[in-house]
Specification:
Mean pLDDT: 77
Strand content: 15-25%
Radius of gyration: 36 Å
CATH superfamily of the largest domain: 5'-nuclease
Shape: elongated
Low-confidence stretches: 1-16, 89-100
Distance between the termini: 123 Å
Order of helices and strands: HHHHEHHEHHEHEHEHEEEEEE
Length: 305
């Protein structure tokens, strides 16, 4: 008997203290939950049956039973319910923060100088925060102060684009002070920044595009977007073209679409300076862009005349 009593007395001391605390917290948590449910049930009983001693005894029995049942069930649980609840909330918050970071866009110098980022952001197609690092602004300022006239105009245009975006109430633009003094190149600084803080790189720089993709960074290239949204033409479709120059081959004329696509007009040299209806013959995709080959509509080929 003595051994039995001492073993029962020592058993709680042998149990892990943390597990005991977890069980007590679980017991309290589940007990209160069951008590709330019991309260709802006893209120319902009071509404259904007329008030009396029997009803009050039943209500008290329901509440005490629910509380004791909850305490027992909670104490049998080894996993902390509070930690699980808070853990799920933390994971959800981390996921939301990660989504916010992924939806943010980091601008490099080339896409600011390009100028198309302004109208693109203002249309609302780009969601999330627009981040501009201070080291990008410094490089942009150096370009705007360049002695070369063309570079100076590009830099100033980029500063005007940023200024217009910051004044737009519907666009969320933030200047980041994060810098990496141990890294000299701006492109490498951008890669380090996106690796640490998340987000997507918005650029028109072909080489930076390739390097960033190799580094596993999500890249949004404005040139690729412009190429993707260009109108698609099929052979036999008619379009109106203004022939503005002569082509390389005999009899060819050259024109351009509004998006810059070059159009080669067969037998179109004699139409230079005029707008004519043409029929699409074929398309050619090159590294420099897309080309359309057309011929004047309603005319026989020159070699058939």
């Amino acid at each position: 008997m003595y051994r039995l009593v001492t073993s029962v007395w020592r058993r709680p001391a042998a149990v892990n203290e943390e597990r005991t605390i977890v069980r007590l917290i679980n017991s309290l948590f589940v007990g209160l939950s069951f008590a709330v449910i019991g309260t709802v049930v006893l209120v319902s009983v009071g509404l259904i049956f007329p008030t009396g001693i029997g009803v009050k005894i039943a209500q008290g029995t329901i509440l005490i039973t629910a509380l004791l049942l909850g305490l027992c069930v909670g104490y049998r649980l080894n996993t902390s319910l509070v930690s699980s609840f808070l853990g799920r909330r933390t994971k959800l918050a981390d996921r939301l923060n990660m989504d916010d970071n992924l939806s943010s866009k980091v601008l490099d110098t080339s896409v600011i100088i390009d100028g198309r980022i302004g109208p693109l952001v203002e249309t609302g197609f780009l969601e999330g925060e627009i981040r501009v690092p201070e080291f990008v602004l410094s490089e942009l300022q150096n370009i705007a102060d360049s002695s070369d006239g063309l570079r100076r105009r590009k830099g100033r245009r980029g500063l005007e684009v940023l200024n217009r975006l910051m004044q737009n109430e519907h666009v969320n633009v933030r200047v980041c002070s994060q810098d990496y003094p141990f890294v000299k190149q701006v492109d490498r600084k951008l890669i380090h920044m996106i690796r640490e803080q998340g987000g997507s790189l918005l650029t028109t720089d072909y080489n930076l595009n390739r390097v960033a993709r190799v580094e596993g960074i999500r890249v949004l290239n404005v040139n690729e977007l412009a190429s993707a949204v260009r109108p698609q033409f099929i052979p036999g479709e008619e379009i109106v073209v203004e022939v503005i120059d002569r082509g390389e081959e005999i009899g060819q004329g050259i024109g351009y679409l509004d998006d810059g696509t070059m159009i080669v007009v067969e037998n179109g040299r004699r139409h230079i300076g005029r707008k004519i209806r043409t029929t699409v013959k074929s398309t050619l995709q090159t590294e420099a862009g897309r080309m359309l080959f057309v011929e004047p509509a309603g005319e026989n080929p020159r070699w058939e005349k």
